[in-house]
């Protein structure tokens, strides 16, 4: 089975319970892993020589040494109260379900990972800018608006900026504009571009 077959045909399903977390592939009869949904941290720096190695425990390891750990649940009454611990638990989950562990943002930049023969997001962006009028390209590179749910992935902006810099002139100034109000995101770019174009027209007229 190719890696992209797992992504396309077997989505990962995670049941985030306040007490128990279950995870597996869509279509499977039983979950791949089931364990208490909590994080454990040692009560003391050295409780037993060689017994505890590390500062954070999750899954069966946390359950095994529960008596030696301070237990904290990242969810209460179905609501995530500690996103950092919740992310650690999800990382553990993905490490336990084998070769299907993929970071979704990477697919946006390297579609070939799932068998798609198309350009990455950064390439599409640069192609669109290069197709525009030469006088507008500099302004467009300085007004790249990140809009939509996928842009909220941790490190997305840094990765996009890094990829663009690999393909443009070193003296090209690139600016990413991040907007978190999703309901109005789609309006930001048209307003920004329209305003700057209008400003340029006014300045030219005054000359």
TrEMBL record:
The keyword Cytoplasm applies. Gene3D superfamilies: 3.30.420.40. It comes from the Eukaryota. One of its GO terms (cellular component) is cytoskeleton. SMART domains: ACTIN. It is found in: Cytoplasm, Cytoskeleton. It holds the Pfam family Actin. Keywords: Cytoplasm, Cytoskeleton. InterPro entries: Actin, ATPase_NBD. Belongs to the actin family. ARP1 subfamily. PANTHER family: ACTIN. This is CSON007372 protein. It comes from Culicoides sonorensis (Biting midge). The gene is CSON007372.
